[in-house]
Design brief:
The protein is α/β, with parallel strands linked by helices and 230 residues long. The protein is built from ten helices and eight strands. The model has no long low-confidence stretch (mean pLDDT 95). Strand 2, helix 2 and strand 3 form a beta-alpha-beta unit. An eight-stranded mixed β-sheet has the order 3-2-1-4-7-6-8-5, with helices on both faces.
């Protein structure tokens, strides 16, 4: 079974080469293609991705939902694996994903662990082993079979934020979701730049706005007012 790996990026020059090395090292011959979908980077992301052996696609618009759909349109694998540019999946990611699919899970993701020794962030990481929506997120990396992705018609591109939460909610209405009990390493830069409690309050506010059906542009504007975030 072949897996297409889709990485939406915007100015990830500090991280992209390390991520691509990890994905190639753990791919075990199952990678259909490594697709880096660029949203208009102004740093060296594109050149570094090409140098590391990825196929780089220029998205028609910037926005994670748009970029991931664009990558999926060009993907050939039976499974799509969406990975954020500032994360690092476990080395066993490919075996873990394929095992989950063979067990009957058409969608799922990993736990996460912050690249930080902050004890409060360790608590956040611990909670991601549990099956609560507010504990999930695209930075944990998300796999989905091609038939389910097509059934859901991909990510709703109106979501300029919270796109992966919307996708997971729609998928989980009729399909089981697998939480693989291994850690994806994720960046703690948002917490370093804003402080732990400020980020937690902002996350709570925008999550409640999302659950109440507020417009994505309003949610995004609120998040940007609350945090230094791109």
């Amino acid at each position: 079974m072949k897996v297409s790996i889709i990485i939406p990026v915007l100015n990830e020059a500090d991280n992209i080469a390390r991520l691509l090395r990890r994905l190639q090292e753990g791919g075990g011959g199952h990678i259909a293609e490594l697709l880096v979908v660029d949203g208009g980077s102004t740093d060296d992301t594109v050149s570094l991705a090409k140098l590391a052996g990825a196929q780089v696609l220029q998205s028609p618009r910037c926005g994670r939902a748009v970029q991931m759909n664009f990558g999926a349109h060009h993907a050939t694998g039976a499974v799509l694996y969406f990975v954020h540019g500032d994360t690092l999946p476990p080395l066993s990611y490919m075996t873990d994903v394929l095992t989950a699919v063979q067990e009957g899970y058409p969608i799922g993701g990993f736990r996460f662990r912050f690249e930080s020794s902050n004890p409060l962030l360790r608590l956040n990481s611990f909670m991601t082993r549990f099956d609560f929506l507010w504990c999930r997120g695209g930075d944990q990396s998300l796999f989905v079979t091609r038939p389910l992705f097509d059934e859901l018609e991909g990510y709703h591109e109106k979501y300029c934020i919270m796109e992966e939460y919307d996708f997971m909610i729609r998928a989980r209405q009729q399909h089981p979701f697998k939480i693989i009990q291994k850690d994806t390493l994720i960046s703690a830069r948002k917490y370093r730049e804003n402080g732990y409690f400020r980020v937690q309050i902002a996350n709570l506010i925008v999550f409640r706005m999302f659950r109440k059906g507020r417009e994505p542009q309003e949610i995004l504007a609120t998040y940007r007012k609350l945090l230094n975030w791109r």
